């Protein structure tokens, strides 16, 4: 399937490379455009056959499936550039959570979906959050889902839950990495263990814990209980974390949702629904 990418920044380039590394797409099936042309051109140089073009219109005219990988406030400009060239048979996939499917359906004639990727998809793992518009035909929905399954686990969600699901699957790797970063740093500062050794141990711990949870042998709660012996060292550490962290995770979700609501309002101010 000829696939276009409007935007080749962090997530756009990640998706392109994941599809190529998985074999789901061939370079000659991909056309890409970026507002900084050199970014798309670098991908074309790296993957012979991939085409870097200079306008979003060209991406639309050459693609059956189009990924919109731009920031929320850039959507209005991009839509103005492509709306006269989108065909009802084309699949348009937004990867930006504050832009609503209904907004896109009212502005573009194509079949709309919203997919929120994760950095974990770069290694062909993790979730892809999938939301499907009312016009997306069953065969195209199946084709899109099959394509996404090559780079991760497509999970259908309700659009109203996109923020909390994104917090877990897309922001989660950064939150866990932050925890791991400070866990390692504290170990080095408090004990003198070499940083490289502490990092290797921490990473293998994370990989092993993930396997225990993915295989279904444990839930997070049962794993904690299995490792933590009453009165033991782990229990002492957990008691400290319970006291110090308190409601930090609740605050985390409040902050991300407040920022999301702010972004949704900004998008609505520049991309209002079309009149009936």
The main pleated sheet reads as:
8 strands, mixed
Helix content: 40-55%
Q: Taking all residues together, what is the mean pLDDT? A: 95
Cα Rg: 22 Å
End-to-end Cα distance, whole Å, is 33 Å
Question: How is the largest sheet built, in terms of strand order?
Answer: 3-2-1-4-5-6-7-8
Total helical elements: 11
**H/E series:** EHEHEHEHEHEEHEHHHHH
The secondary-structure class comes to alpha/beta
Question: Approximately how much beta-strand content do the residues carry?
Answer: 5-15%
Outline the low-pLDDT stretches. Answer: none
**Number of E-type strands:** 8
- Shape designation: elongated
Structure description:
With 276 residues, this protein is of the alpha/beta class. The protein is built from eleven helices and eight strands. Strands 3-2-1-4-5-6-7-8 form an eight-stranded mixed beta sheet, sandwiched between helices. It is elongated, with a radius of gyration of 22 Å.
Keywords:
single chain, 11 helices, eight-stranded mixed β-sheet, alpha/beta, 276 residues
Strand-helix topology:
Elements: E1 3-6, H1 10-22, E2 30-33, H2 37-46, E3 51-52, H3 56-61, E4 65-68, H4 75-82, E5 91-94, H5 101-107, E6 111-116, E7 127-132, H6 138-148, E8 153-156, H7 162-191, H8 195-214, H9 220-227, H10 233-245, H11 248-270
Parallel strand pairs: 1-2, 1-4, 2-3, 4-5, 5-6, 7-8
Antiparallel strand pairs: 6-7
Helix pairs in contact: 7-8
